[in-house]
Structures are given as structure tokens and as C-alpha cells.
Amino acid sequence: MSPSSARPGQTPGWPDVSPPEAPRESHEIRQLGRVRNDAYAWMRFIPASGTRALDTLPYRLRDHLLAEMRYAQEVLQPLDPDVRRFLDRLTAGAPQVREPALDACEGWRYHVLPSEGGARSVFARTDAGGRTQRLFDEAARAEGHAYYRATDHQPSPDDRYFAWAEDVVGDDRHRICLLDIGSGVIRTVVRSDAFGYGGLAFSPSSRYLFWIWRDAHSRPTRLYRSPVEGGRPVLVYEERDPAIFMRVARTAAGGFVALTLAGPDTGEVRLIAAGAETRPPRPVRPRCRGVRYEVEEWNGALLMLTDADGAADRKLLRLDPATFLPRDELVPHRPGVPIVALRPFAETLVRLERAHGLHRLVLMHADGRETRVGFDEPAYCIEIAAAQPYGAGRMRILHQAPASPPRWIDVDLADGRRRVAGQAMPPGFDPAAYCVERIEARAPDGETVPLTVLSRRDASGPQPVLLTGYGAYGIAREPDFSWPAAVLVEAGFRYAIAHVRGGSEKGARWYREGCRAHKRHSMTDFIACAQHLMRIGYAAPGRIVAHGVSAGGLLVCGAMNMAPQLWAGVIAQVPFVDMLNTMSDADHPLVPLLRPDWGDPLADPEAYDWIAGLSPYENVGRADYPPLLCTAGLKDDRVPYWEPAKLVANIRRLGTGGAPAVLVLNPDSGHQESDEQSRAFEQAALFWAFACRCVGVTVPPGRTDPP
């Protein structure tokens, strides 16, 4: 970049390196009477079998991606000193995540300890007498693998076994492992192609493990039952609708295994009763377009959490456990107060709901009394810990806020009294040194958009800002604690979360107003948040860096196309940016599931037009684009590498300012990086060094820097 093309406050010090020039080949697509030419379609490669690897790509594609990797290394190499400085700070101050065991009571209590060096987790359990038994160390499981990520850890009801799913390839196709705690032997129950996100559950008797299989399109489509002592798996249920995803879990009281079949606008639950674990699952209600529901068990009845009859933010019904017929309504629908989750205990039903955009807990007692548990903070979030005994008198929650590291809090289920059991506090971190604010920006249509802002308490006047957001699928972008964000703020930034439409911060309405034909609201909300930060003196022009992950990458790259001059830089992690072509691919793993969110450009001309008018790749124009850093995983099936690869190629072709558009490709990962702490810190250090270069900030010495 030449000095004359630098943005206000931006150091014009990017290396003078020529980027790879991607060939353009005419690839005309005719669809619903419309015609488009995807000149970079040749970058898309799906192997006939197995996962993608650099050495199995077509030669031209491999050469191009290798050239992208070299270019990224050359452009980003001058950032190395700042990357090292950030990485040193992140590593030196990293909190040790040592989850305390629950209060002593009958049976084992399962918890997590840091492995040696803190890079991964050690799973352990503690008995009523305080004796702790280490089960296994994920660091040992990860040895010899370039990629490792595990999920769905759980003990069997009889405490004899411990199961989990692990991905050692990077393609989200898991194997399922079973530890016999008595012998210490770990056995692989399912060697490949399992679904690891809500994809396994022990039967109430502990004799069987139910698990979900992925098909050739990586869609979870079959439920199997495997005997824990060995034997061939038995097919329990097969789903034929590609728009339905599956998850399996045991109800809290242990009376049923629940198979939940759900799409964005439909749902069905099938139950397998304890004592009848080899029988076919029974549907609670037939699926109906426009109605979703979930089922739990409490106090001798089934609970149905549903959006039926216009209850967009969900109501709670009680059902007869034998007939599945409704008994009564426990919690009516309250617009704008969505019920997020339920957690039944023997004497108390706990629900997590959202009021005024923030979480709160409500304890419902067997006699109908309710106790509310809230927190007097501008922004925070709550998570109910997994694997808690149904008969417990206290509940464990995880509380965190942008300036408050995760705290494990025990809540007395009888009266709501709270006791802090532990906290993952970074060494030397002082929450009082930071300020958390919840403010509101005004969108172009008059809607108010919540913003969570983290600053140094002594910050005054405009500061560089990293603005992040998500805004899709009704998923709220929670104001959680991020140690990397705190390190960035310590370096002189403000860190802001834009709670844009498309999420659920204001309930179902907030989601509906940010999807399909209204998706543009997400981008204009994000732009309005950036403009509001400048208006109130928190940021200055040319000093805001946008950041988003996956569908959040769609958000920030869409906002970049709409207002390229607004951003000092854009960081897009595995960004969903080739929206029109992806939603036109019926074989994509997620497309049938997500059509209610985005629309169907294969069948609906209006949907085609609004997607075509928004897709970041399709809408790159002649403009002075800011520096862009995109990441991709070669093995990613959710947002394939070619989406950001095509975007950066198009921006280089049409952009007028000469700022770099960089693709950082990891050949060993999928949609998520390997889950060791060091990898997360390395990526954050690169992002923060890039953000500092974009706004022209010299990374100041920190308290943890060596002299």
C-alpha cells in the first residue's frame, strides 16, 4: 500500500508483495430465469471419498492455495514482533481453568482440571469423601495428531463408564470412545462418522450407548444403539428429511432417552422409556411445519417447551408421561422474555430465560412458587453446568461477564442463595480496572440495537475499537469473558459486541427481523453500532476493526461491502461469504436445514434476489476496501475454504486502494481449530497484531513483557 492510499490513522507499512492472481474462467449459471457468472467456481473441490488434503488437491488448485499461504506469510511477517508480544501476554496471564467439584453428596461428582501446562483438559471425579480420581488426560489423547477436538463428555448413570466423541482429522466426523473406569481401558466404540454435538447418550440402565451417525453429506441421519460391553450396533431410527438435524440425550430424571429431530421451523421428539430401551422410540407429537418443541421430565410428568399457538418466545406445558396428552400450562408465553433452557431437579425446576436481553434464572418449586435469581451487572451471561445429579439440593452455574472471568456459583435450590465455589482468574487481572457498559445504537429504521462495550476504566476520548458480532440462526452473541479481549483492551483498544438482529437477544422477533428478506438489518445494525461509537466519542473514523466468525463473517463482510470506508480493517474467521452459490447447493450438509433462515434460491425467485443482493462475494464492487484477513480450514465442510478464497480474489480484482486481502489457510483444520489453548492464543495474537497495524497503533509494553 502506498502512503497516499493509507486510511486515517493507519500505518501504510504493509509489505509491497504481489498477491496471487487467481485465473478467471467463465462459469455461467442459469437459475430461475436469472444468469450469473461465477468466474472462480474452479476453486471448489470435493473429493470422491475421504477428506481434503493439500497433496490430494488438483494440481492447479493446490498451487494456488500454496501461493495464498506464501503470500499470507509474506504480508503478515512484519507483524511477528507484535504477534509474539501478544502471545507472551496471553500465555503468561492465562487463567487456569480448574473447575471445583460440587459439594459433597451421595455419589461421584465429575469435573475438569487443567493438564500439565494448561493446554488441554484432564477429566476427573470426586466422591462424597473428597477423594479425587483422574479419568483421562486429553493431552495424551491428542499426541501424534495434527488436529484434536473432543466433545460430549459424560459418565454413565451407574458411574462405571465415561464416554466422549473426538475428532482427530478436523472434518467434524467423530469417533466415540468409552472408558471403563474400573479397569482404565479406553475402547473405541464407533471408529468414524459419528456426530459429536449432542450425538451420544447412555441409556438409563447404563447397558447401552445411543449414538448418531453422519451420512456422506455429513448430516446426522441415523440413531444407533450399542451395548457398552461390546457387540454390533443396532439401527434405532433413520431420518429421511435432509432439513432435519438430530440430537440425543437422557432426560434429567433418567426416565427416558429423548431423540430430538429439529429444523429451524419444525420439530419432533421421540422417547425411549427406561426399562424398554430396545423398543422403537415413540413420537410425543407429530412434526408440524411452523411448530418446534423440546421435552424434559420433572415431578412425575413430561415437560414440553414449545412455540406452538404463536408462542414465539416459548411456553411450558406439562404432559402425562404415559399418554403424552397435555395436563396444564406451567409457564405462559411472554413476548420478549424467551425461555432459553430448562434444567429439572427433584424438588425444583430451573429455567434459564432472557429479560431485557440478559439472562436470569427462575426456580420453580413443586408447590408452584417461583424464586428469581439475577445479577446486578450491565452485561453478563449464565450457563447451567452439565451432569448435575437430579436429587441435588444445590445447582452449579457458570457466570461470566466481559470484565468478570468465569465463576462457578452454587445456587441453593430451596431459596436461591448463592455461593461462589471458584473462579478462573488470570494472574494479576484486576476486574476493577475495566468498565463494562450496555448502550444502544439507533438503526436506520429506528430500532435500538444493544451494544456491550469493554474499556479500560481510565480510558478517555476516542480509542481504537474492535467491533464483533454474529446475528444469525437466533443465536445470541453473549457478553462473556474473553481473556484475549482483555489483553487487547489492555493494549489500548475498546472491545465492543454488537447484538444485531438475527440473534435472539430480544427474543424471537429479533431473530425474525434479521433473517431471510430482512437479513440486511443485521449489516445495517452493525454499521449503526460503529457509527454510534464514533458519535458518542468512543471511536474515531478509520480506527474501527470489524471481526466475525462463520455467519458473523457474513455479517462483517456484508457491512464491509456496504460501507468500505468505515472500517480500518476486517477480520473474518471461516466466513460464510459465498452465500448465493452455497445456498444453491442442495448437497451441502447444512443447506436443507438452513433454508428457512436464508431462503431457497433454487425454488423461490424472491429468495434468489435478496440473497444475490446481499452475498458478500457477489457484491464486491469498485471501492477502496480496508485490509482484510480471512481464515479457512481446508477440511471444513460447513464453510468450505473456497468461500473466503473466492472473496479475497474478487476484492483484489475490484478493490481500488491496494490494501491487502489475505487468506490464512490451515490445511489440518475444519470449521474449528484444534482445541489446545496455545492454538487459540496464537490465532488471537495474530488477529490483534493485524488490528493494531490497521489502526496504526504501536503495541505498548505490557505488565507481563520481559524487561
Automatic annotation (TrEMBL):
Region of interest: Disordered: 1-28
PANTHER family to which the protein is assigned, alphabetical: PROLYL ENDOPEPTIDASE-LIKE, PROTEASE FAMILY S9A OLIGOPEPTIDASE
A molecular function GO annotation: serine-type endopeptidase activity
Keyword Transmembrane helix: no
Domain Peptidase S9 prolyl oligopeptidase catalytic: 479-696
Higher taxonomy: Bacteria, Pseudomonadati, Pseudomonadota, Betaproteobacteria, Burkholderiales
Assigned keywords, A-Z: Hydrolase, Protease, Serine protease
Plastid is among the record's keywords: no
Top-rank taxon: Bacteria
Pfam families assigned to the protein according to its UniProt record, in alphabetical order: Peptidase_S9, Peptidase_S9_N
Gene3D superfamilies membership: alpha/beta hydrolase, Prolyl oligopeptidase, N-terminal domain
InterPro entries membership: AB_hydrolase_fold (IPR029058), Pept_S9A_N (IPR023302), Peptidase_S9_cat (IPR001375), Peptidase_S9A (IPR002470), Serine_Peptidase_S9A (IPR051543)
Protein name in UniProt: Prolyl oligopeptidase family serine peptidase
Similarity comment: Belongs to the peptidase S9A family.
Domain Peptidase S9A N-terminal: 20-420
One GO BP: proteolysis
UniProt source species: Castellaniella ginsengisoli
